[in-house]
Amino acid sequence: MTNTNCDVIKSKCIVCSVPVGSKLQYKCHLFDNHSTSNMEADLKVVFDKAEGKCSLCERDKMDLEVFSKHLMLDHDKVLDYMAPGVKEHVLSNFESSQANESR
Length: 103
Ligand SMILES: [Zn+2]
Ligand SMILES: [Zn+2]
Prior knowledge:
This protein is mainly alpha-helical. The chain is built from five helices and two strands. The chain has one domain. Strand 1 (11-12) and strand 2 form a beta hairpin.
């Protein structure tokens, strides 16, 4: 099991050691695999209140699924729901490439 030469894989999930290649990939992975019921409940409340409109940017008319992903991934909210240390791990691994990611 020596797979350390693969430079595409930049990091591994701190929770389950699945390889993640980018910050976005990491966030998607956390959202899909390590989301909490707490997070889903919060999202529903925020979504109902905001009526599908993002309070952090100009995006509007989203359904719950799009809204959830937008808030969690585009605005990094998913990291606030993770166990202590996960957010720091994501940021310290991918901080420098942040500027290239947003299009
Ligand atoms: Zn994981
Ligand atoms: Zn937004």
